[in-house]
Amino acid sequence: MAMNPEELARRQRLRRRNILMGLLVAWTVILLGRLYMLQVVMGDELSEYAAGQRLRKVYVPAPRGQILDRRGQVLATNLPAYSAYLVYTREGLDPEARRLLSRILDIPVEAIEEAEAELRVRPVPEIPVRLKAELTPAEITALAEHRDRLPGVVVEPQPLRYYPGGTLAAHVLGYVREGNRPWELKGDSGIEATYNGPVQLPGGRTVRGLTGVDGQRLVEVDARGRPLSDESRHLLLGGDADRYAAPPKPGSTLVLTLDARVQKAAEEALARRIQELRELKTRPCPCPARNGAAVAIDVRTGAILAMTSYPTFDPNDFARQAFMEPSDPRYDAVNRKVYQYVHGNERYRGKRVEGPTRNLAIADALPPGSTFKPITGLAAMLRGVLPGSTYCGGEFYFAGRAWPDWGVHGHVDFDKAIGRSCNVYFYQTGLNAGIDAIADVATQFGLGQLTGLRDLAGEVQGWLATPAVKAELVARADPNSTESDRRWYAGDTLNASIGQGFHAFTPLQMAVYTAALANGGTRYRPYLVQEIRDPQTGRVLWEAKPDPLNTVDVPTAFLDKVREAMVTVTQDNGGWYGTAYGVFRDAPYVAAGKTGTAQGGTREPEYENHGWFIAFAPAGPGEQPEIAVAVVVRAGGGGSLAAGPVARAMLDAYFAGRYGLPANPETAAEEAHEDAARSAAVVPSD
């Protein structure tokens, strides 16, 4: 039976209603399911994403670790400084904002545009571009006042590396350069480089170095990506404010073995003496005195008390350059100074002066002159061929040739030959001992080889005169040399016996050798870092211990004989004076020493001779030596004249407050230098 039209219409309306209700129910179920997914399943993830749209991660630079001397004096630290950075925003800077920013920071508009372009291509938007470092208070205030007009411009603290002593211990501390990020620093030389990153200690353990671990904090940004004020940060972020915040962890504190008092005395005395030698009218000066170096070592441990090189530099200039942009109006002046430090090619009286950043104490090897004579004497003692007495008429005749002495010394025994530095005596002594015995003793004292210093890079080995070394050096200098040219002759032994010829040692090697003589024959590894400390608690993470490398195979009686002879060098010996008597005649303590004058070349004038002095003290009856020093002045004219006053100043600074010396090390060193410089030429010497 046909359905009437009304019933058909009703059923169609009912079917449409049911379909709509089903669709509504299905849509509600889908919405509820989606809501569940968003709120429950994906809630944390989406919350993170939402926060990421309004939060920006900002790195907080970690302070670099401090460096202290053995007494706690700060040698390297950090100063609070502020830098202006540009961070990414959707809006960017308009032309007027760029001009305003240019006026505030005193930098070109082009520099700002370059920063914007660099920011657009950076893969990590959290890393900003630095516009200017070391902002003045006026610049910081102006940026704050115009904050709303300068989207993306932020001011952040940036610790500035600072060396309170300026040039003090510059070659030991080294300097820093800019790291991978605009607020990072990395050590580029010296202790700053060796201990820059994680340090693997001799036992295999690793501790944090001078570089700390950066922290981070979150900054609220508006819809256009502009940072909001710090005052609103905690209000808007709520619990998220500290969710990702992490405080920076400063680098470890290093305590060095250096004694800043002795270090300062060495630096000032060396620089002063070089200038004096250039003006001195006493023969053979005025001298070029192109550069020099000095080292002091604790003879009981191998700890380096002082290490200096001249000319020097101020590491603060490197630290400032690391933060400065080329657009900074101060950049050119700082950059010129740094360039001169690294690439300087100064010449003095026709010859090059080594660049100021070169640590000559470990990187320059020179013939030692007469400071080598104790080695020759020990070699002869070991073979039982040490001359009892020799007559010195000023020349030694051998193989049809006259080998010169610097003076006529008459009849000399070992003590007087050391005290007056008689070449004739040691020519004979060297011939008696032979080059093999001489080289064996010198090797035991560490000459002509690396000292084992771990704390600084760049140490050179130098050369110890042997037949093999001569053959190598001659062949290297002249590939066309003959076998006869490379052969070792007795004349080479004569030269080697008095520290000439193919010897070349660094000041550090000479200091280690002198310390081993002083302490009875133990050669210690020299070291500069005494402790590594936790920067926050002060807890000692690692401490260096004395590291004996070897004990020389020489009877104690022979070493005693050498030390006693070295005391005569600084004394009035009842009828004759030691070569450094003028330097030490008013010293209140007894020092043992040895002067050395090394020829710059057989055809070079006398003023081109290198002046050496080695010493240890105290060396009086019943006293135990504590400190050994080695000083050299290139082209300084002579050992006592050039290097002696520097060594005297270092020793007096070390003994300040003892032996009746002034308690102030600077006063003690200055008075000692004046007396020694005035009297250094009283007794003619090598």
Topology, pairings included?
Blueprint: H1 5-41, H2 43-54, E1 55-60, E2 67-68, E3 74-79, E4 82-86, H3 95-105, H4 109-121, E5 129-132, H5 137-145, E6 153-157, E7 160-162, H6 170-173, E8 176-178, E9 185-187, H7 190-194, E10 199-200, E11 206-207, E12 215-220, H8 230-237, E13 253-256, H9 260-279, E14 291-298, E15 304-310, H10 315-323, H11 331-343, E16 347-348, E17 351-352, H12 360-363, H13 373-383, E18 390-392, E19 395-398, E20 401-404, E21 410-412, H14 414-419, H15 423-433, H16 435-444, H17 467-477, H18 483-486, H19 490-497, H20 507-519, E22 522-524, E23 529-533, E24 540-543, E25 548-551, H21 556-568, H22 581-584, E26 592-598, E27 610-617, E28 627-634, H23 639-654, H24 665-679
Parallel strand pairs: 2-13
Antiparallel strand pairs: 1-12, 2-3, 3-7, 4-5, 4-6, 8-9, 10-11, 13-23, 14-15, 14-28, 16-17, 18-21, 19-20, 22-25, 23-24, 26-27, 27-28
Helix pairs in contact: 9-23, 9-24, 10-11, 13-15, 13-16, 13-21, 15-19, 23-24
